[in-house]
Design brief:
281 residues; single chain; four-stranded parallel β-sheet; alpha/beta; two-stranded antiparallel sheet; globular
Length: 281
């Protein structure tokens, strides 16, 4: 590569903006902020999921490269790569409840979790490009809803743009390009196809397997009675479990039949809290 330095390929503005560092642990991260938590404590004080997280707080532990995995990146151990956004990272969830971690426990080997919250397929490609020859990779699992999310390198720094959450401060940069192009379903789709196929090409280059699920662009934070994400925005634990089942099914049908109903989430958090905890609010 002529212009893309390792620093650019590995750049993480999610860490830079939050002043977070590799190898550290944090009680709040991304949209699961302390401010949102305090707001939910007031507005959702009778929500059994909120009561659950008071009793069982989340710790986001980042590895030596700043990713959410207990495994330190190295070039010796084989593992499985997971690409995606907050649904794969597990914003608002204990790691045990996240589809990617569940799946890796069944398959085995190291948990190379390269997911970054708030990103789309352009960022997934860049991050994978940075690491695909540095890690020993057996399988790549990619959960990639077709969100209107783009990445552009500005002054040698990659910047993520969630176009659907239009920020008026971006108008001088994008102008009418926003509505005329970037927000259109056609542009979004061709961008998704181009970058998922680019990732597939890199996976084929190293002789690994690529498993891709598009997923929905909707948010399922209140769809069922299971334990919700702590920010009450991201998918419930039951929805996370369905993603785990979907990937397990396309990976190995025999494993799916054997493990589809293991690592089950708390499917009725209200009943669970009544049984195991008295109200603590």
């Amino acid at each position: 590569m002529k212009y893309l330095t390792e620093e650019i390929l590995k750049y993480r503005n999610d860490l830079a903006e939050l002043n977070h560092f590799e190898g550290q642990s944090y009680s709040h991260i991304s949209s699961d902020t302390i401010m949102r938590w305090e707001e939910n404590l007031k507005k959702e004080k009778n929500n059994p999921s909120i009561q659950y997280y008071i009793k069982h707080p989340i710790v986001y532990k980042l590895n030596n490269e700043g990713f959410r995995t207990p495994d330190e990146f190295n070039s010796n151990d084989e593992g499985n790569v997971f690409l995606g956004c907050s649904h794969t990272f597990g914003i608002g969830h204990h790691l045990d409840n996240v589809w990617s971690y569940k799946l890796n426990k069944v398959i085995g080997d190291k948990f190379w979790n390269l997911s970054i919250g708030g990103t789309g397929v352009m960022t997934h490609f860049r991050i994978f490009l940075a690491y695909y020859k540095k890690l020993k990779i057996k399988n790549v699992f990619h959960y990639a809803p077709m969100y209107s999310r783009y990445e552009f390198i500005e002054n040698q720094i990659p910047q993520y743009y969630i176009i659907s959450n239009y920020n008026k401060e971006w108008a001088p940069k994008f102008g009418t390009l926003m509505e005329d192009c970037l927000l259109t379903k056609e542009q979004n789709e061709i961008n998704w196809i181009a970058y998922t196929n680019a990732i597939r090409s890199l996976v084929n280059e190293i002789g690994a397997n690529y498993y891709l699920i598009e997923g929905e662009t909707g948010w399922h934070g209140r769809d069922d009675k299971s334990l919700q994400a702590r920010d009450i925005i991201h998918h419930t634990t039951e929805y996370q479990h369905r993603i785990y089942q979907d990937f397990l099914k396309i990976y190995d049908m025999d494993l799916y039949e054997k493990y589809k109903d293991e690592q089950l989430p708390i499917t009725d958090v209200k009943t669970y809290m009544k049984k195991y905890h008295t109200s603590i609010i």
